[in-house]
Structure formats: structure tokens, C-alpha cells
Design brief:
CATH class of the largest domain: Alpha Beta
Number of strands: 11
Order of helices and strands: HHHHHHEEEEEEHEHEEEEH
Number of domains: 2
Organism: Streptomyces misionensis
Protein name: SMI1/KNR4 family protein
Number of helices: 9
Structural class: alpha+beta
Strand content: 15-25%
Largest sheet: 6 strands, antiparallel
Radius of gyration: 18 Å
CATH architecture of the largest domain: 3-Layer(aba) Sandwich
Distance between the termini: 31 Å
Helix content: 25-40%
């Protein structure tokens, strides 16, 4: 059922030049839509369009393949070429590895492409799926009991993972644009009343209480486990407005 705002014709998050929700709906369908979404998001939410220096070169990727002795999936090459050097899109919190840093894990199961900022987890592509153009992405937690570590489902396509990376890393930009709120009953109700669910699949894949994305008017919202709300305003004024719409003990408010 649409939110009250949509029933009354309110389309949150739409700017004159970039409709985030509509672009994201196309972005989750495949690689070309994902890259188009990231181009639009970079231009209209970071203020700097993707330029010729935003990505790594073909030579950088060829050198990584030669060093690793394997072929990189098409989606990985396309993402690195398009925006791999734009740290504010990929590495504000967790870190996308440079081509020269890509490595195969010790168990020889996966190509590792991303690290959690405190080393608590890694993201990778299983070696037996590297031949796929847009393979699934898995996550492996760093556990005290190393024998219990496993690569488990994260997202079903690499291009979808890169959309998630760009969205999630935007939540860790300048403090004046970002905030955090613990969700209780009243806050959760206010969220539902003043935002719409974005067309991004709940994840990790198969998780019954996973991460979901919402959009208020020019404010991107991520709910983790139904209990934590992270917010990123397109401007500081946008973020202030959502704090008023969803009142609570905001971390930076």
C-alpha cells in the first residue's frame, strides 16, 4: 500500500533534474541501469558529476588480472572504470579495494573486493562465478573462531552491490548532512508516515529482518534490522526537515 504522502500526490525525493526513486527502480534491473543511477546520484547528491578521472584505467585492471591470474567480471571492470577512484562514493566508511589491492582469500574461495572499516567483515565474489558478467556478492564476517567463518549471501548481483555501496557510503559524508536515530514505536510510525519505501531489495539476501531503504523529501533513509535509522540529506536544510518530521533523539541533531 502506498504511503499517505503518495495517496495525496506527494512524490518525495524528486528534484527537477533527478528522480532518485524512479532512477533507482531502473538501477536495480541490471548493469546499465545501475551505472545510470550512480551517474545521476553523483551529479545531484554529491554535486560533482562523474568525469574522466573518476575511474581506474583499463591498464590498471589488466595489471590486476595479470597479478591475480584470473579474469575480473564485466560488472567489476565497468564499475572501476566508471567511478572506482571516487572515494566519497565508495569509501567514506567501508572501503572498496583498489585494483592493485584485490586478492583471493586464504581458503581460495573468493575474490575479495571490499573491507568493513574496522576489519569486521569482507565482501567478495566466489571464484567459481567470476566468469559471470554480473555475479552474486557474498559477505564473510571476521570471527574469533576462524573455523566458523563462511561466505554467505549478500546481494544477488555485483551491479546491485555497487548501487548499495554508493547509497550506504553517502550516509557517512559530512556530519551536517548525515544523522542517526534509534527507532522505537513512535519514530517508526513517523518514518512510515513521512517517507516511501525505495525499490531496492531487502538484504542480506534471505534475511528476514534485513536492511531497507526509504526516501523522504530529498532525504535518503536506511533502516537496519528495524531498529536503527541512518539519514542523509541532499542539503543540511533537508536533513533538518526530516528531523522535524521524525522527532527523536538524533545523534547530531
Amino acid at each position: 500500500m502506498p504511503s499517505p504522502g503518495l495517496r495525496h500526490g506527494y512524490r518525495p525525493g524528486i528534484t527537477q533534474a533527478f528522480d532518485l526513486a524512479a532512477s533507482l527502480a531502473e538501477g536495480v534491473e541490471g548493469r546499465s541501469g545501475a551505472w545510470a543511477f550512480i551517474r545521476g546520484f553523483a551529479a545531484h547528491w554529491t554535486g560533482t558529476a562523474l568525469g574522466g578521472d573518476a575511474g581506474w584505467t583499463e591498464a590498471d585492471l589488466d595489471a590486476a588480472e595479470e597479478r591475480l591470474g584470473l579474469r575480473l567480471p564485466v560488472a567489476l571492470r565497468e564499475a572501476y572504470l566508471l567511478f572506482g577512484r571516487r572515494r566519497e562514493l565508495t569509501s567514506n566508511h567501508d572501503r572498496l579495494l583498489d585494483p592493485a589491492e584485490l586478492y583471493v582469500d586464504e581458503a581460495k574461495e573468493a575474490l575479495v573486493v571490499r573491507h568493513e572499516n574496522q576489519g569486521a567483515a569482507s565482501w567478495g565474489i566466489l571464484l567459481d562465478s567470476l566468469q559471470d558478467d554480473d555475479p552474486a556478492v557474498f559477505i564473510r564476517l571476521d570471527l574469533a573462531d576462524k573455523s566458523a567463518e563462511r561466505w554467505v549471501d549478500w546481494l544477488e548481483r555485483l551491479s546491485l552491490c555497487f548501487v548499495e555501496i554508493v547509497l550506504s557510503e553517502s550516509l557517512h559524508a559530512d556530519e551536517e548532512l548525515c544523522d542517526f536515530l534509534d527507532l522505537y514505536g513512535d519514530e517508526a510510525e513517523a518514518l512510515e508516515a513521512n517517507s516511501v519505501r525505495l525499490p531496492f531489495p531487502e538484504y542480506p539476501t534471505g534475511d528476514e529482518d534485513g536492511t531497507r531503504w526509504f526516501l523522504a523529501r530529498d532525504v535518503l533513509l536506511r533502516v537496519d534490522g528495524g531498529a536503527a535509522l541512518l539519514a542523509r540529506g541532499r542539503t543540511a536544510d533537508d536533513l533538518d526537515r526530516v528531523r522535524d518530521l521524525i522527532p527523536g533523539d538524533w545523534l547530531n541533531g
